[in-house]
Amino acid sequence: PKSKDVSVRSMAIDILGTIAARLKHDSVVCHQESLWVVQELLDRENTDGSEPRGTCSVCSDGVVEKCLVVCQGCQRLFHPNCIGVTEHDISMRGWHCPLCLCGKQLLLTVILQIANEG
Predict the structure, then answer these.
(1) What positions does the domain PHD-type occupy (predicted)?
(2) Up-side HSE of residue 34: CA atoms within 13 Å toward CB?
(3) The pTM of the whole model exceeds 0.70
(4) Per residue, what are the HEC states of 54-106?
């Protein structure tokens, strides 16, 4: 019985190690992918409108088997899973993409800093 317990524990440790490694990898990938919002804000004035119409602003794929949602702020299109939301999370009125939300947060931060200094 003890040899069976040892093999089960070893297998569980291997599986947990694999899960932990995957979570760490996904965390790093998620962190790196979130930087596209900041890059978009920095490059906003340099865009020339060359992005194909009808494509997701994150993955550049069109409407294949996934629906695209429109940001009410910038009118960009997104696949819900490309920005980490479900279709139920997106209300039909007034939805704003992470880029627009980040821009609003940055603007509010600047306004609050100016108000606190003055």
Answers:
(1) 53-103
(2) 9
(3) no
(4) CCCCCCCCCCCCCCCEECCCCCCEECHHHCCCCCCCCCCCCCCCHHHHHHHHH
